[in-house]
Amino acid sequence: MTEMLREGDVLRLQRAFAHCKDESFFEHFRRLLRARLRFDTFLILRFSDSGTPQALDSWLADCSLKTSYPRHYLDGSYRLDPFFQMRKRASPGAMYRLSEIAPDRFFSGEYYLQYYCKTEICDEVGLLVDLKGGATGHLSMSRQAGQGRFKRKELQCLRHFSPVMLELLRQYCEFRQDQLGERVQPPVHSPLDTIIRDHVTALSGTVLTRREAQLAALILQGHSNLSAALDLGIARATVKVHRRNIYRKLDISSQAELFAALKDLF
């Protein structure tokens, strides 16, 4: 069924476009989407390969979240965020639901249990769009447990109008990017496996191979052995060998202990 814009939607959309290059846009954008669906968090971030994401704007219905989210996220947890990991695969822009892009063991992994679950967020939808200079704009909308998950009709509406939402997001994020004086240089790629490898060596003198570090990153993101094998393009049996080697070198025996050993990164 074709989605129709009501008169109020048209006015809110007009205001959003009129203000996409000034600081009042965030509130106009939030009102535009809030008229069609309920959410408890509304965040706009800028992702890049060269450093910590920038929180451009945020609105949190629950004041208790303000002390733990997004501060904890920006301190390092973003490295395990499925939306952050998806930023280059979404080019030039797309809308996703967390459950669609999360690794197969994400919801039983330590990142989810130790951090994400504590926010009491039960559902999340995000827009990702390419920005000039190689950065990515990200809009995150989520619901806490007491409000229930996004309804199918709400998601259908978002998907239907996502091209318009993505263009609004792109224009505003690029405006803020310029406003902050950040003429983005070619990105310096620092993948999670490199960070893990360097951290382990600095911490204990133990040397992980590049493949072991890649696997450790995937385990922490919530990938099973099979999912990691598919991602790396190797046999599942080979993944098991690498996993045993990682655990032996770090003197650990579980994914939880791996997360604990590398907790300073997250």
TrEMBL record:
Q: Which organism is it from?
A: Sulfitobacter porphyrae
Q: Which Pfam families match?
A: GerE (PF00196)
- Alphabetical keyword list: DNA-binding, Transcription, Transcription regulation
Q: Where is the HTH luxR-type domain?
A: 201-266
User: Which Gene3D superfamilies did the record assign?
Assistant: Winged helix-like DNA-binding domain superfamily/Winged helix DNA-binding domain
- Determine if Transcription is one of this entry's keywords: yes
Please identify the protein, giving its name as recorded: Helix-turn-helix transcriptional regulator
**Family annotation (SUPFAM superfamilies):** C-terminal effector domain of the bipartite response regulators
Tagged with keyword DNA-binding: yes
* Matches recorded under PROSITE patterns: HTH_LUXR_2 (PS50043)
Source taxon at top rank: Bacteria
Which classification does the entry list for the species?
Bacteria, Pseudomonadati, Pseudomonadota, Alphaproteobacteria, Rhodobacterales
